[in-house]
Amino acid sequence: MMKKIILISLVLFSILLSACVMPGAKPPATTPTVEEQPANITPVPPEAVNQTTTAPLPVSQPGSECLAAQNILQRDQCFLDLASSQRDVKMCDQIYSIAVRDGCLDRFADTDEKVCGQMNDATLRQNCFYAAAMRLNDTQYCTPIGDAARRTECLKALSPPCSFEKNETATTLCRALNKKDYTLCTSNQCLFDYAIKTGDRNACAIISGELALSGACQAAVRNESNYCAALPQQSIQDYCYELTAYALNDSSWCGRGSEGSDYRNRCVLNFAINESDVSLCAQAAPETSRDDCYLGYANARNDPSVCPKVINSLNRNKCMISTALKNANPAACNGLPYYDKRSCYNLVISGTVPIYEADSCALVDDPLWQVKCYTAAAQQGSDSSICQKISDAGSKADCLAKFS
Asked: What pLDDT does residue 354 have?
């Protein structure tokens, strides 16, 4: 009986113990009422429960419609048309073709100098920079122009007058001409040139210390030879005639100098070369000076056909050799005697001056030296195709072998 009582007591005690809250246990979760929520928490509206939030779609970018084009050509044309219609240079950046892109940028060149440097075509780029320089009156846009002549033209157009003359005399003359005032000249040459260009003989009157220049100034402005003839010495007169010839660009004045005069001989040689008229050399005297005229002409014009006119045989050979060497023209050696000719060929073909023209080798009348001429021309020009001009198969192969 006692055991039953104890067992019943233990069961009752266990039931009572399980009904109690254990220390540290969390209370059952409950949803607080609105009044029970802390003040710093915003209540969630009931209608927002389970609602999905979606990010806004991106705004369509300008030109995005062009991306739907069927091919690159159509897409480029689309961007080009948009750039023009919307005056939006950024559309040009989307163009794939370099040429089309340059054309697109060029449409903005008249108002936007920044596009110049973005152009790939050299001509368009230079034209763009030039137009920008003129429009903005700013020489900084001349500097990027690649062509030296165009760049100088640009700089001259925007720089003060007379800024690009070759020396001080030319600069002074330029200023005098611009101001129409010969007193701005600081040299006799400036006064002379001013008088020739303007026809103002008053400038001649203040040339001092140079009788020939003063006389030539008056003679040229008035086109009267007596101003030279009146000078005190024959040499001064001859020099006066030479200067007048140059001032008027008239070779007939050379012949007014005394025969055999150095001034007359120099005058006819210069005009012979400048006018490609070797017949003027006939006015040179004596015979040695005439030979020198022919030699000088042959050298300057690379024309050995003139050399046979030289009377002295030694000077004639000298004419051919010097013409050949100065112009690297082996064909000029052809008229020489056999041994002199071979020596001349050797000097020209093995010389430091490149053969001026490979086709001139065809005129070499010695077959052996003709081959050497072609071979040397090919090597000097790094052009193996010149070897093909050699008719002999073995020699041609030797020439081509130098490039293998």
From this structure: 83
